[in-house]
Predict the 3D structure of the following.
Amino acid sequence: MANISASAVKELREKTGAGMMDCKNALTEVDGDMEAAVDYLRTKGLAKAAKKAGRVASEGLVSVRSEGTAGAIVEVNSETDFVARNEKFQDMVTQIAAVSLETGGGLEAIESAPYPGSDKSVKDYVTEMVATIGENMSVRRGTRLTVTNGVVASYVHNQSAPGLGRIGVIVALESAGDQDKLNAFGKQVAMHIAAISPLAVTPDELDPDVVSRERAILAEQARESGKPEEIIEKMVDGRMRKFYEESVLMSQTFVIDGESTVEAAVKSAEGDIGSPVKIAAFVRYALGEGIEKGPQDFAAEVAAAASGS
């Protein structure tokens, strides 16, 4: 049997909102597997929030860059938000987003590309900045989207500087209509994605593992009703329809008007744009998602920042 630490119980409680003993029992049941414990609590109806395991904040910035039919998004991490507010760091992240737009967006391509106005690669330039600023930092990820005919629109939530913030979105829209109007609508869609965080554009694009996992959780919940399997199957099908409505972009309620679905909003926008519109793809980055961050000594962090060490 796994030895369940108090810190693991505390982490699970923060992720789910469940009681301490419920969290300890869940971890004991699954031999300490944090993700399985989240699923266990959801199955038992004890989780007060379906927070994703491992989603803890880290520092740095997300940057977006879009130009016509192409757009790029990058995340560059730092140890503290002191550095994220540093103008040199902000300029570096902006430049790296521009490199991502030119190179194709992949991490390896970004890091090996020349840093603008320098004889160094991006990776070597970041290493030099670590020595200059005195804090560890790294390019974590980058993605580029392109369309043949249309636009790649972008949005950054609560910008700390132009194109920089903690949540960024790029969205590719295909259309032969008015490009300025298409871009304006695309920004609204990007704002929706930033706020609601859909998992995919359509149900067919959902990760099969995510669908299977959700179905298994719903099936276990339904079986606790004691109903026959054929009834349980229908219950699960109904609940999966709700899951799709909440998780798939085109089925979600459009936050801009709070009434129509995104699919209906697209159809409505087509009249103004003057041509059919297809949302081809999107990428949403939230700063630090999926990064496991160890215990922090904030007093030491502030003291180090004050001393410049």
User: Anything to note?
Assistant: Confidence is low (pLDDT under 50) at residues 49-57, 301-309. DSSP finds twelve helices and seven strands in the chain. The beta strands are 59-67, 70-78, 137-146, 150-157, 164-165, 167-174, 278-286. Residues 229-247 form the longest helix (19 residues).
